[in-house]
Design brief:
Largest sheet: 5 strands, antiparallel
Structural class: alpha+beta
Helix content: 10-25%
Oligomer: single chain
Shape: globular
Low-confidence stretches: 1-19
Radius of gyration: 19 Å
Strand content: 35-45%
Distance between the termini: 83 Å
Order of helices and strands: HEEEEEHEEE
């Protein structure tokens, strides 16, 4: 009986790794606050593609509290281990957005030139201007 359990575990592990190994990257889109389904909407600006080499997986899960302002990271469930997260640095993508409140993001998994449908929308976030520093009135 123990050999069957071990074999099934090994088979499951191989399937999980192979499915993740085919992913070549992720596309991240940013949507207006009024959007409720990314698959029926147009992103505010062109989505950015992040090659798999720029994605870090196996990270501890995090939660979001409040509404992030000028976020720098997109996180999602690690396809190889749903108890972990993957992370993408989206700093430049967010900086390129016009200032607005309530943006939402969605992502697509890429396998070569084929993209999945958009994921569920993320929590809302704001893009605000960076305040000046060193202000002096003379």
């Amino acid at each position: 009986m123990m050999k069957k359990v071990s074999f099934l575990f090994l088979l499951f592990s191989c399937i999980t790794v192979n499915a993740h190994a085919q992913t070549t990257g992720y596309s991240v889109g940013v949507f207006a606050s009024t959007v409720t389904d990314a698959n029926t909407a147009t992103p505010v600006v062109a989505p950015i593609t992040y090659p798999i080499a720029l994605v870090t997986c196996g990270l501890a899960k995090t939660t979001v509290t409040g509404v992030p302002i000028n976020p720098t990271t997109a996180r999602f469930d690690d396809p190889a281990d749903a108890t972990k997260d993957c992370s993408i640095n989206v700093t430049n993508q967010i900086k390129a957005l016009p200032a607005a409140i309530g943006y939402k993001s969605a992502a697509q998994t890429l396998e070569g030139t084929v993209a999945s449908i958009w994921s569920n929308l993320s929590n809302p976030f704001d893009k605000k201007p960076i305040p000046v520093t060193g202000l002096r009135i003379q």
